[in-house]
Design brief:
- The complex is a heterodimer of chains A (about 450) and B (about 425).
- Chain A is of the alpha/beta class.
- Chain A starts with 8 loop residues before the first helix and ends in a 23-residue tail after the last helix.
- Chain A is about 30% helix and about 15% strand.
- Chain B is mainly alpha-helical and about 425 residues long.
- The longest helix of chain B has 17 residues.
- Chain B starts with a helix and ends with a helix.
- The chains are: A alpha/beta (about 450), B mainly alpha (about 425).
- At the A-B interface, helix 3, helix 6 and helix 7 of A face helix 2, helix 3 and helix 4 of B.
């Protein structure tokens, strides 16, 4: 809320042009006024979503946090900083898409999908972003998306969705690629200042034409206008990335050498094989980079995912938790044990929630207190969503909230007949966002136990 | 510079730049020549660069409502018939208002149809409608066809051109029996001996081969380009093929399966040796699966012996035979067939298929689906086209002369505004 300072049009255009035509990065420009330093003592608005595919079967959700065997047990250390919602509905009377398509596009948006590619509306992180920073987020990255997944990008990987339901950010699954995206220097360094001025002029002219279509021409409407707005917005996001200075305290962040995911082709429905250990290591590294980006104020919004909807990864190797263990045998998580095989689903669910817990731990690191004296987790609104948990129905979907600067009521386990739309509306309204997210006909009421008194 | 900007922008934007665009581009030229001391040639190059990145060049933008102007009609006509931007003559006709009269538009249509570039229109239309453009350059899983993708596609496109040149009904393309044999697909038809250098090297002269007397194959329906497009990445799914054929033949979208159906449990009941057809037969009798699957599964039965590379197989790896016979309830009629040829004959006689082909052609020409309120105009287009035999050219003439084409406006769902306020 503290960064609603209006950015100058000229400043925005300068960088936007840079990216679209590959204008070389000029280090002298990096201290420009494109980005604002947080004022001392002020907490920037941040919202991050967490997601894991397949979800947790209803019967396992009910085992709670205290049973060591329960998939929810990894959340026990965070129980005071998280509220868990079990058995959340995510169905609709007219849900026509295939279960995972529906779940994947409905979760985090609460809106009926437009089609098999487009969600029906924005994801919650983007709703909060637009409300908090209507003129654009004053950070190097507009939105950061990362996740562990083993297929080429498809509809299921985009957790952050813009107002049109289209992807707001392409998720990265390779740690080195994520690092380069967050900290890397844009290409083209070395061009002289005159060449850069020329190219900036060219893009000033080009962007003026985009604005002309989007803002001035009343005869361009509907999806045409939306597409042009998206095009323009993407250029502006890139601009911020180019001109966003990396704080000195973060500039020395070492690049991860490993691990890289051991594949480079599309695994399609048959999935790729990966050891549980590699998956955990990759996700931990992605999480570390993601958290550093938040901590350095290079980004304030985004999504972190462990396995997409309809996950098809073929996990291999022994997974241990407490005195329990399970040998993943390389069968696909979706086709071979999602549904009724509670033994394997228990292990998978525990593995997935362990990754969520690890992300919460990284956010909650006390070594990096924020302006309030609390952790990054305390000062970031976090929403966890999953998808169909039991045999492809849309009922009984696990959700959770965390952080939120005292605006959310935490430390609760809520097992009430609520719908995902109820969760999302309560969440954003607790954050002060007056937007009726999700489908009105599925909304049954706000959840009082989720809002701070 | 102003005149140069107008000429270049008109070519690139497929219409003259409006006042704001023109002012911005000439202003850019002035800044570059004045502030940066660039010469005319260098500054012009950067102005051109700006045009090539502008929305006017990158997007085909049509206005939200109202009658189309001449330049919009020129673009619509040119992309429909030539798959490309309007040429100078079409832009001239647009500028002089000729396209806004029925006679002027009809004259432009005939000129474009007579142009050699007109072969692109039906190729693009068929490529979209029958997915003939989906052939991968590298055909995986078939050593003898490995790098034959371009030749497989060329064969299909020659069949499209043959359909147009012979003025056959466009709907007959799907069941066309004359297959263009080149070195790439010759092995699939047992014709490799006609190519002296062997199928792995181009050689010999391509020719048309009539499959009407062939026991196994029936023209386009079993052509490798068609089979590649309708087979999904998991292989030769009866469901995927049937859903596509239901859409391509009857313009019906069956939607996705109900959310509460556990498809995995059904598949678990079948041994690995079962054919897809075995599973489909069983599924047809299950409630609630059968109600929907009976609407599309049978359409794929004639194709089950053909893999996605276009090869014919009598049985699966376990020796279980593939079967092509089937039946399909179409309205009150029950269509029954034993072979792909018999299935093709039934398709040939179907009025629903013909109507669907008209709908697909209109959709291709407009760049959008016809709206329900346009049903009357769509029917008139169909009647006009079939009064002239239903050929590609007859369809093109009926479509372009229709108010559907002349006055088409983009639909305006305004999704962005409504997304958060439902």
């Amino acid at each position: 809320m503290k960064y609603q300072k209006v950015l100058s049009r000229r400043t925005l255009l300068r960088g936007a042009g840079t990216v679209a035509i590959g204008l070389p990065f000029l280090s002298a420009m990096s201290s420009s006024s494109v980005l604002a330093d947080p004022a001392p003592g002020e907490i920037p608005e941040r919202c991050v979503t967490l997601f894991f595919g397949l979800g947790v079967p209803k019967t396992l959700q009910r085992e709670g946090l205290d049973d060591d065997r329960s998939p929810l047990a990894p959340l026990r250390p965070h129980r005071d900083k998280i509220s868990i919602l079990t058995d959340v509905g995510m169905s609709a009377p007219d849900a026509l898409l295939a279960p995972h398509l529906w779940g994947g596009l409905m979760s985090l948006t609460g809106a009926r999908p437009r089609n098999t590619e487009l969600a029906g509306g924005p994801s919650i992180d983007q709703v909060v972003k637009r409300h908090a920073y209507p003129s654009g987020v004053p950070t190097r990255l507009d939105t950061l998306a990362a996740g562990f997944f083993l297929d080429r990008l498809g509809w299921e990987h985009y957790r952050s969705r813009d107002a049109f339901g289209a992807p707001a950010a392409a998720p990265l699954n390779q740690p080195v690629a994520l690092f380069e995206h967050v900290f890397g220097t844009p290409p083209g360094a070395g061009a002289d200042a005159r060449e850069q001025r020329i190219r900036r002029s060219v893009l000033d002219g080009t962007l003026a034409q985009y604005r002309h279509y989007v803002q001035d021409r009343g005869d361009v409407g509907g999806e045409n206008r939306v597409r042009l707005e998206q095009h323009l917005d993407q250029i502006r996001q890139l601009e911020r990335r180019v001109y966003g200075a990396i704080p000195a305290s973060c500039a020395a962040t070492p690049a991860p050498a490993q691990p890289e995911l051991p594949y480079d082709v599309d695994g399609a429905l048959h999935g790729h094989e990966v050891t549980v250990a590699t998956a955990q290591e990759v996700f931990a590294t992605l999480t570390e980079i993601f958290v550093i980006a938040l901590r350095c104020d290079l980004v304030r919004f985004g999504s972190l995912m462990f396995e997409p909807p309809a996950a098809h990864t073929r996990f291999l190797g022994r997974y241990r938790w407490g005195s329990y263990e399970h040998d993943f045998d390389g069968t696909t998580s979706h086709h071979d044990y999602h549904g009724s095989d509670l033994v394997r689903m228990r292990a998978y669910s525990h593995l997935a929630i362990s990754q969520v817990a690890a992300a919460l731990s990284a956010l909650d690191d006390p070594a990096f207190p924020g302006p309030s004296g609390g952790s990054l987790l305390d000062e970031t609104a976090v929403l966890l969503a999953t998808e169909v948990g039991t045999n492809h129905d849309h009922d009984g979907v696990l959700h959770a909230v965390a952080g939120g600067c005292g605006r959310l009521q935490l430390g609760r386990v809520i097992d009430a007949p609520v719908h995902a739309v109820d969760v999302y509306r309560t969440f954003v309204r607790a954050l002060g966002v007056d937007a009726a997210v999700g489908e009105a006909d599925l909304f049954t009421g706000e959840i009082d136990d989720l809002r701070a008194a | 510079m102003g005149e140069l900007v107008t000429r270049a922008a008109t070519r690139l934007y497929r219409r003259p730049p409006d006042a704001e665009e023109h002012a911005e581009l000439t202003s850019l030229f002035s800044r570059l020549t004045t502030d940066e001391s660039l010469g005319f040639e260098d500054a012009s190059r950067y102005v051109l660069e700006s045009m090539l990145q502008s929305p006017g060049f990158l997007y085909r933008i049509e206005r939200r409502a109202g009658a189309s102007d001449g330049f919009e009609l020129a673009s619509r006509l040119s992309y429909f018939l030539h798959g490309s931007a309007p040429d100078d003559e079409l832009l001239r006709a647009a500028a002089e208002g000729e396209l806004e009269s029925e006679a002027g538009l009809a004259a432009a249509l005939e000129r474009l149809l007579a142009d050699p570039r007109a072969e692109r229109g039906p190729a693009h239309l068929a490529g979209d409608w029958l997915r003939l453009a989906w052939v991968p350059p590298v055909v995986l899983g078939a050593r003898d066809l490995y790098d034959r993708g371009p030749e497989i596609q060329e064969s299909a496109m020659r069949m499209v051109a043959d359909n147009v040149a012979a003025e056959h009904a466009l709907a007959d393309l799907l069941i066309a029996e004359r297959v263009w044999i080149n070195a790439g697909i010759a092995p699939l038809y047992g014709e490799e001996s006609r190519f002296p250098d062997g199928a792995s090297h181009p050689g010999g002269d391509p020719y048309f081969f009539d499959t009407s007397a062939d026991d196994l194959r029936t023209g386009m329906l079993t052509h490798p380009a068609f089979l590649a497009g309708i087979s999904d990445e998991t292989g030769e799914s009866i469901v995927s093929r049937g859903v596509f054929l239901l859409s391509a033949l009857f313009c019906v979208d069956p939607g996705a399966p109900p959310a509460d159906v556990d498809t995995g449990a059904f598949l678990d009941d079948f041994p690995e040796s079962a054919t897809e057809r075995d599973m489909s037969d069983a599924r047809a009798g299950i409630v609630p699966c059968g109600a929907c699957h009976r609407a599309f599964d049978p359409l794929a039965y004639p194709l089950e012996p053909f893999d996605r590379q276009g090869r014919h197989r009598a049985a699966n790896a376990f020796g279980n035979p593939y079967r092509t016979e089937g039946s399909y309830a179409l309205g009150a009629a029950l269509l029954e067939w034993s072979t792909p040829h018999e299935f093709a004959a039934l398709v040939r006689e179907s009025s629903q298929v013909r109507e669907c082909v008209t709908r697909r052609a209109v959709q291709f020409a407009l760049g959008r689906r016809p709206e329900p309120e346009e049903a009357d105009e769509l029917r008139l287009v169909h009647e006009r086209a079939w009064a002239e035999g239903g050929s590609y050219v007859a369809l093109a003439r009926a479509i372009v002369s229709s108010p559907l084409f002349r006055d088409s406006a983009t639909t305006d769902p305004s999704p962005a505004e409504g997304a958060e306020s439902r």
